[in-house]
C-alpha cells in the first residue's frame, strides 16, 4: 500500500505542479503583452533622448507673438491704437447714455445743455461731435418708441361709430 500512496501522491503532486506551471506561463504571457502595449516606441525614445539635455524649444512670449517684419509691427500697433480709441469712445458714449443728469467735472464737457426739450420726432442737427449727435439721436428714438406703446386716448367719434355698427348688426340679425 505504501507504493500506491507514493504513486498517488506523486500523481497529485504532478497535477498541482502542472497547474502552477500553467499559471506561471499565463502570468508571463499577460505581463509580456502589457509591456508590449505600454512600452515606449523607438520614436518616443529618440524624442526623450533629444530632450533630455538642453531645452531645444524656443520659448514663446506670453503677451504678443513675435512679428517678423517692421511694417507688420507698425500696422499691428496702429490697429491696437485704433481699437483703444474705439473703446474709449464707446466708454464715453456709454457714460453719456448712462447718466441722465450731466455731472460737472474738471474734464472736458461733452454734452451741451439744451434750453428746452424738443418735440418728439423733430431732429435738428447742430454742429457738434459725432458722439453727441448719436447720443441725441438715440434719446430721440427712445422717446419715440416710448410714446408708441402708450394706451390710446378715448376718441368719442370712434365710440359713436362702434355703437352704430353694433346697432346695424342687431337690425340685420332680426330681419
Q: Give me the secondary-structure category.
A: mainly alpha
Inertia-based shape: elongated
Biggest β-sheet: count, sense, barrel? Answer: none
- Number of distinct beta strands: 0
End-to-end separation in angstroms reads 131 Å
Order of helices and strands: HHHHH
Low-confidence stretches: none
Overall pLDDT: 77
Rg, rounded, reads: 46 Å
Helix share of residues? 55-70%
Strand fraction band?
Answer: under 5%
Secondary-structure topology with pairs:
Elements: H1 2-38, H2 42-51, H3 70-98, H4 130-148, H5 156-174
Written description of the protein model:
- There is one protein chain.
- This protein has 175 residues and is mostly helical.
- It has a domain at 2-50.
- Helix content is 65%, strand content 0%.
- The protein has five helices and no strands.
- The chain has helices spanning 2-38, 42-51, 70-98, 130-148, 156-174.
- α3 crosses α4.
- It is elongated and about 130 Å long.
- The model has no long low-confidence stretch (mean pLDDT 77).
